[in-house]
TrEMBL record, chain A:
[4Fe-4S] cluster 1 binds at C38, C46. This is Carbon monoxide dehydrogenase. GO terms for biological process: generation of precursor metabolites and energy; response to hydrogen peroxide. Coiled coil: none annotated. Pfam families: Prismane. [4Fe-4S] cluster 2 binds at C47, C50, C55, C70. Keywords: 4Fe-4S, Iron, Iron-sulfur, Metal-binding, Nickel, Oxidoreductase. It catalyses: CO + 2 oxidized [2Fe-2S]-[ferredoxin] + H2O = 2 reduced [2Fe-2S]-[ferredoxin] + CO2 + 2 H(+). [Ni-4Fe-4S] cluster binds at H259, C295, C333, C451, C481, C522. It comes from Anaerosolibacter carboniphilus. Its cofactor is [4Fe-4S] cluster. SUPFAM superfamilies: Prismane protein-like. InterPro entries: CO_DH_a-bundle (IPR016101), CODH (IPR010047), HCP/CODH (IPR004137), Prismane-like_a/b-sand (IPR016099), Prismane-like_sf (IPR011254). GO terms for molecular function: 4 iron, 4 sulfur cluster binding; anaerobic carbon-monoxide dehydrogenase activity; hydroxylamine reductase activity; nickel cation binding; peroxidase activity.
Length: 647, 315
């Protein structure tokens, strides 16, 4: 591999060079072997949705093939491909949410899964219109679970939209007919409409994509988060550490990688099992060190302070340290390259979900009905593997950083309560945040989310963008691998307020928070949607009126595409730091980056340069501020007029 | 207009006014005419503290105007807004200094006392340090009626706070039968909003005298006032841009501003409390002033503030 800079993270760089020395391949090697990507696929101009094809459209208008065999134009092909990405992303999140709902359905007083947050259960039940009076907690839990599960396939009616969505937004969705019906149905509808000879109109297809994505953001993901909180507790602020330096020399290192907390929660529990701890002593280790990666890492870190080993592009590097006894995975964003890589070390690569079998892996199926026993079996495998560790091959990088995490909305409100004057306002609201935004102390808020992508220098864009935002008094909320990049860079530490502008630094000091709030995993972006909606409601405006934007600087997955769609549909401008495969259709680009604003009050921005994207975001935030000032003034005026008329 | 723009506007108005009076006095008295407040060793205290510059003549005031200009940077950022607020304080000090430069005693025909001399500040030092004076209330503007104004002021008085009055609230206090005077801890400053600078000057000189802060180290002054001077502002009545920019100056010093009108609130800094019955409680909480009260059930108010009261024959 050449000397091109691949990462902004020191630990990552050190392990990439160890990989070279060890003669094992990583994602960056495979990227190099791939050479230049196919121009047709890159622009979204390749269609293989039927056996007449594959067809490909010339990227130059008027030159070469302009239509597929069926007559589908570039616009049709590009929008169909994109819609299928949305459908895939939505199904991934939503199936995750479904699993969690099933787990809630089996929750019982003495079972493996119980109800940790009764208050949240009552809140959710209430918002779903379920009677809570005089009900056994578990009966109620099962009813909520059943309600959630029905959201996936109810034959009539629409998805229950959470009350955090402002009234204006809800009406807009109704007008545009993008209120989702059942979650699964929307995914199926896209698969149907993108079939050969069906939908052949880019705008209509994009509208469908928005509806499907909303089924994710306000259905699958939203439920996934809420029910995870019910089952495992709503996160509260806590301290942890991040980066591969959290691996330990004399402990059994277990990496939890994947997404669903049903597994990772049990592993964390099992790692404290007396019987297993005895076994640890027998193999000569000092303890069990459970660390997390990607979103399942975020879940256990938010709720238990489990340390973060790394983000998406570091999953191979964790194995390459030679210090990991087991990588335990469930679903989503798991490199199939891992089993082969693990073989080069002593690491056991353990798959657990029937939804994600990987050839070459040790499969220990995780059974929710016997969750604790399953988890114990998995941890036992890891412990027994400790003796196989080759100490000469071990290299644990020194890099790690402190982070304060656990910022669920309830935690944020608890922190905001510190600055409420008890003689003026009630506690328990986002009003202090809304006040800081309207007065201008905070210029705006940005959600930094998304994956890693080897097309970009690992973590670099995210860190640059976050630093620029906080220096400009824009508070950052982060989830997923972006939040982990921030954690590794020390940006989730309360000390990081020294990098913030005066306004944000003052807020951080008063409220006792870091300038970047870790709000959880990718399904937890629903928390961000809830936060934005509640602030909009407090001010009596729509989401799109707020100085709030989102960015996925290094996005990669189809889930990120679905997220981007539901965020835009929610009225929040969204920047993409990686160009999506749409550039083959001027029409699709025009709709997504321009015309969609007329529909939903927000649009996509495609900008790969993080500094340029940052500037655009700040400009847009300031523009929204000016519009909001006017809107608030008009509102004041009309209130005055109304008062005058009364008199 | 948004809050930050309002502050910038007010600061520019203050600057213009300051420029006007400086120009006028130079024309009238010449550049070498003396400028000084009575009984102080700290020149124009706010300017001296912030910059270390000793202003002695009317001509020096022109330089002070440049300080004001340099503090107004109209980019909407918190630090700019706070600096803009400080600029208004400097403008106010310039305007008040010109008053003293043009007349022997500009506050002669007013109930307000204007500039607070060094000896008074020294006499306040000990009770401030011991907590005998638990806080400093700066009341500004015109309350909804005299009765409400009187209630608020008497409440502060009974809690031992030192209360400064600026604007029409002075007349309202008189009407409500509030007894005033240094020993009673209620001090009227003046009718003009710029006279509020005389209480800022008290806080600043406290840092110079008791905090031993070096002139020119502005940030050290702001830290001192924020941590050591338990002051806050109650702004009554409709707020002009000028008053709002004064408020930004108070916030820069670490003093919360509590208004009785709708303002864009900033948590812990700029608050709206329309209920006069809650003004005192709200203000004390905002400045984190905790008063241990042992209420003695007697028919008259009881507090250290009444220690210096003289019973006249007529009473």
């Amino acid at each position: 591999m050449d000397d091109k800079i691949l990462t902004a993270d020191k630990a990552t760089a050190e392990l990439i060079s160890k990989a070279k020395n060890d003669g094992v391949e990583t994602v960056w090697d495979r990227q190099q072997i791939m050479k230049a990507p196919c121009g047709f696929g890159e622009k979204g101009l390749c269609c293989r949705l039927c056996a007449m094809g594959p067809c490909r459209i010339s990227p130059t208008p008027g030159k070469g093939a302009q239509k597929g065999l069926c007559g589908a134009t570039a616009d049709v092909i590009v929008s169909r491909n994109l819609a299928r990405m949305v459908a895939a992303g939505t199904s991934a999140h939503s199936d995750h949410g479904r699993s969690i709902a099933h787990v809630l359905h089996m929750a019982s007083k003495d079972g493996n899964y119980t109800v940790k947050d009764e208050r949240k259960l009552l809140e959710v039940a209430k918002r779903l219109g379920i009677e809570t009076e005089n009900k056994d907690m578990f009966d109620l839990a099962h009813e909520v679970a059943e309600y959630a599960l029905n959201e996936y396939g109810k034959p009539f009616g629409k998805l229950t939209i959470p009350p955090s969505v402002p009234e204006q937004r809800r009406k807009l969705w109704e007008k545009l007919d993008i209120v989702p019906r059942a979650i699964d149905r929307e995914v199926v509808a896209i698969m149907h409409s993108t079939h050969m000879g069906c939908m052949a109109d880019a705008e209509s297809l994009i509208t469908m994509s928005l509806r499907t994505a909303l089924a994710d953001g306000y259905g699958g993901s939203y439920m996934g988060t809420e029910i995870s909180d019910i089952l495992f507790g709503t996160p509260v602020a806590r301290s942890t550490e991040a980066n591969l330096g959290v691996l330990e020399h004399n402990a059994v290192n277990i990496i939890l990688h994947g997404h669903e907390p049903a597994l990772s929660e049990m592993i964390v529990l099992a790692a404290d099992d007396a019987e297993l701890l005895k076994l640890v002593k027998e193999v000569g280790a000092e303890g069990i060190n459970v660390t997390g990666m990607c979103c399942t890492g975020n879940e256990v870190m938010m709720r238990h302070g489990v340390k973060i080993a790394g983000n998406f592009l570091q999953q191979e590097l964790a194995v390459i340290t030679g210090a990991v006894e087991a990588v335990v995975v469930d679903v989503q964003c798991i490199f199939p390259a891992l089993p082969e890589l693990a073989e080069a070390y002593h690491t056991k690569f353990i798959t657990t979900s029937p939804k994600a079998r990987i050839t070459g892996a040790t499969h220990i199926e995780f059974d929710e009905a016997t969750a604790y026993e399953s988890a114990k079996n998995i941890v036992r495998e890891a412990i027994l593997n400790y003796k196989n560790r080759n100490k000469e091959k071990v290299f644990i990088p020194g890099s790690k950083n402190h982070a304060t995490v656990g910022f669920s909305n309830r935690t944020i409100i608890n922190h905001l309560d510190k600055v409420v004057n008890s003689h003026i306002d009630p506690t328990g609201t986002f009003k202090p945040l809304a006040d800081c935004l309207t007065s201008g102390v905070l210029r705006g808020a940005v959600g930094v989310v998304g994956c890693n992508n080897p097309k970009k220098v690992h973590d670099q864009s995210m860190i640059e963008i976050i630093k620029t935002m906080i220096a400009n008094d824009i508070i950052v909320v982060a989830t997923g691998c972006a939040a982990q990049a921030a954690a590794k860079a020390g940006l989730l530490s309360k000390d990081a307020r020294r990098l913030a502008g005066k306004g944000l630094a003052t807020v951080c000091e008063l409220v006792d928070i870091p300038p970047v709030l870790h709000m959880g995993s990718c399904v937890d972006i629903s928390r961000i949607m809830e936060l934005v909606g509640e602030v909009a409601k407090l001010l009596g405006v729509d989401n799109c009126d707020l100085p709030v934007v989102g960015i996925a600087p290094e996005w990669m997955s189809e889930k990120a595409v679905a997220i981007g769609h539901y965020v835009v549909a929610s009225g929040i401008d969204t920047w993409l730091g990686i160009t999506p495969p749409i550039m083959g259709s001027e029409e699709v680009v025009d709709i997504l980056t321009n015309r969609i604003e007329e529909m939903v009050g927000a649009k996509f921005f495609i900008e790969e340069d993080p500094m340029k994207a940052s500037r655009q975001m700040i400009e847009r935030i300031e523009l929204k501020r000016r519009r909001l000032d006017k809107k608030m003034e008009l509102k004041d005026l009309s209130m005055e007029e109304a008062a005058a008329a009364k008199e | 207009m948004n809050l930050f723009q309002t502050v910038f506007t007010g600061s520019n108005q203050a600057l213009q006014a300051a420029q006007g009076v400086v120009k006028q006095i130079i024309e009238e008295k010449g550049r070498d005419h003396k400028v000084a407040f009575p009984d102080t060793a700290y020149f124009l205290p706010v300017i001296y503290a912030a910059t270390g510059i000793k202003i002695k003549t009317v001509g020096d005031l022109e330089g002070a105007l440049d300080i004001v200009k340099s503090l107004i940077v109209e980019e909407e950022k918190l630090e700019n807004v706070l600096n803009s607020g400080l600029s208004t304080a400097v403008s106010a000090e310039i305007i008040e200094a010109v008053k003293y430069a043009s007349q022997e005693n500009p506050y002669e025909n007013e109930p307000g006392i204007g500039f607070v001399s060094d000896p008074i500040i020294r006499s306040l030092g000990v009770p401030l340090v011991t907590g005998d004076i638990p806080g400093v209330a700066v009341l500004l503007g015109e309350a909804v009626d005299s009765e409400s104004a009187g209630k608020v002021i008497k409440d502060y008085q009974s809690k031992g706070l030192l209360t400064f009055l600026t604007g029409k609230i002075i007349d309202q206090a008189v009407e409500a039968g509030v007894k005033m005077g240094l020993e009673l801890r209620v001090i009227p400053l003046g009718y003009d909003v710029t006279s509020v600078i005389h209480v800022v000057s008290v806080a600043i000189r406290a840092a110079l005298i008791f905090g031993n802060v070096e002139p020119g180290k502005l940030n050290d002054f702001l830290t001192y006032t924020k941590n050591r001077v338990p002051a806050f502002v109650n702004a009554f009545g409709p707020l002009s841009e000028l008053v709002v920019s004064c408020g930004a100056g108070a916030i820069a010093l670490g003093f919360p501003v509590i208004c009785d009108t709708e303002v864009p609130e900033v948590p812990t800094c700029l608050l709206t409390q329309k209920d006069y019955d809650k003004t005192v409680k709200t203000s004390l909480e905002a400045r984190n002033i905790k008063i241990k009260v042992t209420e003695i059930p007697i028919p008259v108010a009881f507090a250290a503030a009444f220690e210096g009261e003289r019973i006249r024959k007529d009473d």
